[in-house]
Amino acid sequence: MDGKRRVVITGIGCVTPIGTGVEALWEGLRARRSAVRAITRFDPTPFRSRIAAEIPDFRPQDFLDGRRARRYDRFSQLAVVAAGLALAHAELALEREDRDRVGAMMGSALGGVAHAEQQAAVYAAEGLKGVDPALALSVFGGASSCNIAIEFGVTGVNSTNAMSCASGTIAVGDAFHAIRDGRSDVMLAGGAEAPLAPLCYGAFAVIRAMSTRNDEPEAASRPFDAGRDGFVMGEGAAVLVLEERGRALARGAPVLAELLGAASTSDAYHMTAPRPDGSQAARCLTLALADAHVAPEEVGYVNAHGSSTPLNDKAETLAFKRAFGAHAARLAVSGTKGYYGHPLGASGAIEAAVTALALARGWLPPTLNLDTRDPECDLPYLEQPVAARAPDVAVSNSFGFGGINAAIVLGRSA
Question: Is there a catalytic annotation at residue 270?
Answer without folding.
Answer: no
